[in-house]
Specification:
alpha/beta; 5-stranded mixed beta sheet; 10 strands
Length: 239
């Protein structure tokens, strides 16, 4: 099996965890706001000290790769890459929206055909969202959505859909977009799950699966979600 350091900084919550043989043996969270530059280093130092004191060797570092906060992702990815370089470890990238689904899947959803729609807040009625089935197979790729009553109608008409993440609640509140107080998402098949955060302690099953399948990243060239398109357009001689 494997020992993995997990780093999550895509939202206002900063968290670090260590998993060994599919069990989380260390975890810390900072919910005080977007001060990752200050808190992440301390939490990582404590995680490394914990494993070093117990003579537990790491196999890899997993980091949330977005979408999410530009600044938060940059801080988390920079920290993960630095540790990988310093300790000669493999780097694993975990999509933030996929990570958000993990605590929801641990709950018992009644419907076998239910779909999951994790959402991260962008601005106004915009969100980053993806749609997955219960096996975490993408039904629709990640996209930046302007949420209206029709945005997810094709899925809601056929399936119960569970919405969660820090962008979901505002879509269920009256926004006045139609001149009234009707929520943007207002459908009998739409269900809001509150209190779901992307946390490092939930990364373990996704990171272990990627490590087992040798889905690791090139430490030198890896970038978070918001820079992928930019880097793809650069001339190869600059990479």
């Amino acid at each position: 099996m494997s020992t993995i350091l997990h780093i999550e900084t895509s939202t206002n919550v900063c968290s670090v965890a260590v998993s060994e043989d599919s069990h989380v043996i260390f975890q810390q969270e900072d919910n005080s706001g977007p001060n990752h530059a200050e808190s992440l280093g301390t939490m990582v130092d404590e995680a490394l000290s914990f494993t070093d004191n117990h003579a537990i060797p790491f196999d890899a570092v997993a980091v949330s790769c977005g979408p999410g906060s530009y600044t938060g992702l940059r801080i988390g990815v920079s920290m993960a890459k630095g540790i990988c370089y310093g300790r000669n470890l493999k780097l694993i990238a975990v999509p933030t929206l996929e990570l958000l689904c993990v605590p929801v899947l641990l709950r018992e959803l009644a419907e076998d055909n239910a779909l999951l729609c994790p959402m991260l807040d962008a601005r106004r009625m915009e969100v980053y969202a993806g749609i997955y089935d219960r096996a975490l197979k993408p039904v629709r790729e990640i996209g930046a959505d302007i949420v209206t009553e029709d945005t997810y109608k094709e899925y809601l008409d056929k399936h119960p859909v569970y919405f969660f993440g820090n962008g979901a609640k505002k879509c269920f509140e009256g926004n006045g977009a139609a001149g009234d107080n009707t929520p943007a998402i207002n459908h009998p098949n739409a269900h809001l799950i509150e209190g779901i955060e992307p946390l490092a302690k939930w990364m373990q099953p996704l990171a272990e699966k990627r490590l087992l399948n040798d889905q690791t990243e090139d430490v030198a060239y890896f970038v978070p979600y918001y820079l992928k398109d930019f880097v793809a357009k650069l001339p190869k001689k600059l990479l």
